[in-house]
């Protein structure tokens, strides 16, 4: 094990301890019914389970955007659809929209290591979905949502209400992961993969925190705008505490 990797793993454990002391995000407390409805479908729906098993063989866990990440995004995307559409959709139609959101969540990072990963991932998702009982309109909505999920890029406007909602819910669920999840798993997996020198990581740390803070203003659904900034604030609190600890460690020699 390299010295840098050993240092990153030590810092990861420190960050995980900090996250463990945080309160649960308000989203999971206030919207527990929506989260539970999404969880039930995620665990039992035949299409979602079949797609989950397929992407398990395709997603690479060594870059912080593997199956665990995709499953969390699928769960929260389904919960967001439930929140945003429950007053306007019939129960059957609502269940279908949650199902399609979960499919998008499972598929959204198929091409995460590739340049222009959202566009490339949408094309890979379209090819994969041909083997599943997903109609053309739903497949189009899933792929459009994947194409639109990247941060700091203007989304392509979609011409259906259901497609626009799916796109926005997928984006917000993915950006929820920029909160505490970033400091328990994602950051460290990416560092373990690329293994930059520690001094380079520390030099870039403040700009990374600034980028993280910018996510707060990008949430797209009403529920995302209501709950998303707290996820980011929780992540920022951990990131700032960790940085102070790292700086004290460096000063102590």
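Q: What amino acid sequence fits the structure above?
A:
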């Amino acid at each position: 094990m390299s010295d840098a990797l050993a240092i990153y793993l030590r810092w990861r454990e420190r960050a995980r301890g900090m996250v463990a002391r945080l309160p649960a995000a308000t989203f999971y407390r206030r919207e527990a019914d929506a989260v539970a409805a999404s969880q039930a479908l995620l665990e039992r729906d035949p299409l979602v389970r079949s797609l989950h098993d397929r992407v398990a063989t395709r997603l690479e866990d060594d870059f912080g955007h593997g199956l665990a990440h995709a499953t969390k995004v699928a769960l929260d995307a389904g919960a967001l659809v439930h929140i945003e559409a429950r007053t306007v959709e019939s129960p059957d139609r609502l269940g279908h929209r949650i199902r399609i959101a979960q499919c998008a969540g499972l598929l959204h990072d198929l091409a995460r290591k590739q340049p222009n990963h959202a566009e490339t991932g949408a094309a890979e998702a379209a090819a994969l979905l041909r083997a599943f009982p997903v109609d053309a309109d739903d497949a189009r909505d899933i792929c459009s949502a994947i194409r639109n999920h990247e941060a700091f890029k203007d989304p392509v406007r979609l011409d259906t209400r259901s497609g626009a909602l799916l796109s926005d819910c997928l984006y917000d669920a993915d950006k929820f992961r920029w909160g505490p999840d970033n400091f328990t798993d994602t950051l460290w997996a990416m560092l373990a993969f690329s293994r930059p020198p520690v001094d380079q990581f520390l030099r870039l740390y403040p700009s990374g925190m600034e980028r993280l803070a910018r996510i707060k203003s990008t949430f797209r659904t009403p529920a995302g705008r209501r709950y998303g900034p707290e996820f980011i604030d929780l992540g920022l609190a951990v990131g700032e505490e960790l940085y102070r600890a790292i700086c004290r460690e460096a000063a102590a020699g």
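Q: And what stands out in the fold?
A: The chain has twelve helices and no strands.
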